[in-house]
Design brief:
Layout lengths: L1 H15 L3 H20 L4 E7 L4 E11 L8 E3 H7 L10 E6 L6 H28 L5 E9 L3 E6 L2 E6 L14 E12 L2 E7 L3 H11 L1 H4 L3 E9 L3 E8 L6 H6 L4 H9 L4 E6 L4 H8 L7 E5 L4 E7 L3 H5 L4 H10 L2 E7 L16 H4 L1 H9 L5 H12 L7 H17 L1
Parallel strand pairs: 2-3, 7-9, 11-12, 14-15
Antiparallel strand pairs: 1-2, 2-4, 5-6, 5-8, 6-7, 8-9, 10-11, 13-14
């Protein structure tokens, strides 16, 4: 049993890099427990573990006496002489008797094995917990081995990692057996062992991917100042070069976009805007709202609010689909952004639109009314104004407002 126990512990030292002294202490503690159970709590003993030789030696220390009052603590001089007093010990000295493990009996040995197994399991849990605690915020690569309703289980170095639904990239498809990359986001101690939560939607995952694909970021030449992200749809990231000779945005995008495309592919084709950082908040907000073009910005630094003025034909670009562009700009800059749309003067529209091209949108009745009153283009209708159009029988203020909105929307799409 000695060699089996020590060998199993020595294997943990080799495979998991566990401190040898820690394992030795566990063995000494467990065997100390069974010594006390057999010889009493006051028993004087010594447990010697030699991890290199694969051996455990247990010694019971008893005082040599002429009158034995407690046989667990004392041994009679005559008995000592009978079993062999090689060291010629005298009364009052201490005798160390080597105890063989089988002498403890099957029940005690079974208890020792159970205690050791439990301590090993606890130690393994602590090892896993500490291992992944050190990996917090770092990318790990594992294999998907189970897909459940609300989470995905990933095998990483024979350890179970969990990718919850809220840490997944929306609409991304996962298949059993596929290799997956994610960051270690959280490590918790649970009753059955450590729970390791990984994430693909966290901003740190995007940051680590940039560090992998762009050596200048990894080396600290280019610094990522801030990240705003709606996973699976769009992300904005501000970067600043510490070396004036290096263009931060160009380095991140790479030749023909090869660097940024590698990150985009990993993120399920998530659009990524790389923005040059600027300490001037006005310039930063303007860059963050691209591709929309703005006319002016008013900043309230105390309230961290920005009022942005832009032509109405730029509003859809500034806001973005479902408002994603302006939301990300607010996350990126830390400012609340209010958009004020300004109507673009008619003379600034470069191309007119023939009314016949809007026939379907206007409807047959409205189209014919306008044509009959010699309005042949969209700009002619807008320049006429509401008062003039009210002279046409069949048009009301509400209907004219609808016509104006429809025509303006067509110009904004041009």
């Amino acid at each position: 049993m000695n060699s089996e126990i020590v060998e199993s512990f020595a294997q943990m030292v080799r495979e998991k890099g566990v401190d040898k002294d820690v394992l030795q202490g566990i063995l000494e503690e467990v065997f100390g427990i069974i010594v006390k159970k057999k010889y009493g709590e006051e028993a004087n003993y010594s447990v010697v573990v030699n991890m290199d030789r694969g051996d455990i030696e247990i010694y019971l220390m008893r005082e040599v006496v002429e009158v034995v009052e407690n046989p667990n603590l004392q041994i009679h001089i005559d008995e000592l002489n009978r079993i062999g007093n090689e060291d010629e010990l005298e009364v009052g000295e201490e005798y160390a008797e080597k105890i063989k493990i089988p002498s403890f009996g099957r029940r005690m040995i079974s208890l020792a094995k159970q205690s050791l197994a439990q301590r090993i399991r606890e130690l393994e849990k602590d090892l896993i917990y500490n291992e992944y605690k050190e990996l917090l915020g770092e990318i790990v690569i594992g294999d998907i081995y189970q897909i459940r309703k609300n989470d995905i289980l990933v095998n990483h170095n024979k350890n179970e990692l969990m990718l919850p639904r809220n840490e997944q990239i929306p609409f991304e498809k996962y298949r059993k057996g596929e290799t997956i990359r994610a960051i270690v986001k959280e490590v918790k101690k649970g009753s059955t062992g450590p729970q390791i939560i990984i994430s693909r939607s966290d901003n740190t995952f995007l940051r680590r991917l940039f560090e992998i694909e762009i050596p200048e970021i990894y080396d600290g030449i280019i610094e990522i100042k801030s990240i705003a992200r709606e996973p699976g749809e769009r992300a904005k990231i501000t970067v600043e070069s510490q070396d004036k000779r290096i263009d931060a945005v160009g380095a991140c995008v790479g030749m023909k976009g090869v660097r940024i495309h590698a990150v985009v592919r990993e993120l399920n084709n998530e659009n990524i805007d790389v923005i040059p950082y600027n300490s001037d908040i006005k310039i930063l907000i303007e860059k963050a709202l691209a591709p929309g073009k703005i006319k002016n910005i008013e900043i309230d630094k105390n309230e961290k609010k920005a009022t942005v003025f832009a032509d109405s034909d730029q509003a859809s670009l500034i806001v973005g689909r479902n408002g994603v562009n302006i939301r990300l700009a607010m996350k990126l800059t830390g400012y609340t952004i209010d958009l004020i749309r300004e109507e673009k003067p008619f003379e600034e529209y470069e191309d007119d639109i023939e009314l016949i091209d809007l026939r379907e949108e206007l409807g047959e009745e409205i189209y014919h009314l306008l044509i009959e009153h010699r309005y042949d283009t969209a700009l002619e209708v807008l320049r006429a104004g509401e008062d003039k159009l009210l002279e046409i029988e069949g048009l009301t203020s509400e209907k004219i407002t609808e016509i104006f909105e429809l025509i303006k929307s067509q110009f904004e799409e041009e």
